[in-house]
Amino acid sequence: MEVKSVLNKCMTCRRWRAKPFKLPGMPNVPETRTIRTRTFENVGLDYLGPLTIKGESGLIKRWIALFTCFTTRAVHLELVDDLTAESFVHVFRRFSARR
């Protein structure tokens, strides 16, 4: 038992017994990210903010809708007035009309 504990504490011995670094395996990628498709055919959505913007009536809170293409990782930003469902529908319609 004593020899084993000495070998475990010895840095030189630990280096000689060390195994080389092995790269982890590749994760399973969804098919939507590997098949060639049009840009922004498959997207992810996230909100960024709130951002304080100086307006005519003082400081206003605004958010940014961040659309990310799954295939090309391209980014599209849209300014959002608030976090209501109605505001989301307006932003999504603007995004769909442009892309």
TrEMBL record:
Gene3D superfamilies (alphabetical): Ribonuclease H-like superfamily/Ribonuclease H
GO molecular function: nucleic acid binding
Superkingdom of origin: Eukaryota
InterPro entries: RNaseH_sf (IPR036397)
Cited PANTHER family: PHD-TYPE DOMAIN-CONTAINING PROTEIN (PTHR47331), PTHR47331:SF2
Protein name per the record: Integrase_H2C2 domain-containing protein
